[in-house]
């Protein structure tokens, strides 16, 4: 099945943003992995923002992909935060306990402001 | 399990999807269309949609083992104040109902696969999930009340 997931990487001082769009499901693996690797290669970020504002669907395989990214980031001592989740997917992040490990922000501006404050 | 109110049964939809990856999205959309107008609140509709997609994925992958020639049967009924969705595959005795409880800390430590969230999500999204098999066909029955429980919004861990 063809992926609808796209991931755009932007470098920030001390961090990076991965803007996701489309569906975060099993077909998103290559896009998400490549985006993470690109974010790391661009600037060895302390923090990575996963922005879900343009994501319409996340399934259990997508949750597994996010778990894999989080595990990799933690092993490299990088912080992962998330922004732009709908109320439904915030609930899923709570139920799965992802929100215990990934700080959630209402939108990308809030997340970036927080990272900027920490970096200064 | 939450008790299921009994009442008149009204069929809202009955359809099949072939066992091909991605058809869970077709099922999700058809069920959402079928329950429009039943009074199911948006938040509970989102939960039902996630449960239907995950149960259909399980039926395609584990029940029918991605064999495109095998169908997944889906029926949507309204039974009193409940929406009931049944999802049936040809997987017979497969053990889709007994997967290991996912533990995020263990997953992050590499002690458990990152996968394995499907059944966990289904159980936490709906008011009741029942699994039956006749040895040939395997059916997951999802029940969702159209009324909103007073404790809605609290964690659903207690339903496990």
What does this structure look like?
The complex is a heterodimer of chains A (120) and B (160). Chain A is an alpha/beta fold and 120 residues long. Chain A has helices at residues 29-43, 60-75, 87-95, 98-101, 108-119, and strands at residues 6-12, 15-24, 47-58, 79-83, 103-105. In chain A, 47% of the residues lie in helices and 31% in strands. In chain A, strands 1-2-3-4-5 form a five-stranded mixed beta sheet, sandwiched between helices. In chain A, α2 (60-75) links the parallel β3 (47-58) and β4 (79-83). The radius of gyration of chain A is 13 Å and the shape is globular. By secondary structure, chain B is an alpha+beta fold. Chain B is built from four helices and five strands, in the order βααββααββ. Chain B starts with 8 loop residues before the first strand and ends in a 15-residue tail after the last strand. The interface between A and B is medium-sized, with 25 and 30 residues.
Gyration radius of chain B, rounded: 16 Å
- What is the number of E strands of chain B? 5
The number of helices of chain A is: 5
- In spatial order, strands of the major sheet of chain A run 1-2-3-4-5
Major sheet summary line of chain B: 5 strands, antiparallel
Rounded mean pLDDT of chain A is: 94
The structure class of chain B reads alpha+beta
Q: Based on Cα principal axes, name the global outline of chain B.
A: globular
Q: How many helices of chain B does DSSP assign?
A: 4
Q: In terms of per-residue confidence, which ranges of chain A show pLDDT below 50 for 5 or more consecutive residues?
A: none
Shape of chain A: globular
Radius of gyration of chain A equals 13 Å
The parts of chain B where pLDDT drops under 50 for at least 5 residues are 155-160
Q: Output the strand order for the largest sheet of chain B.
A: 1-2-3-5-4
Helix and strand pattern of chain B: EHHEEHHEE
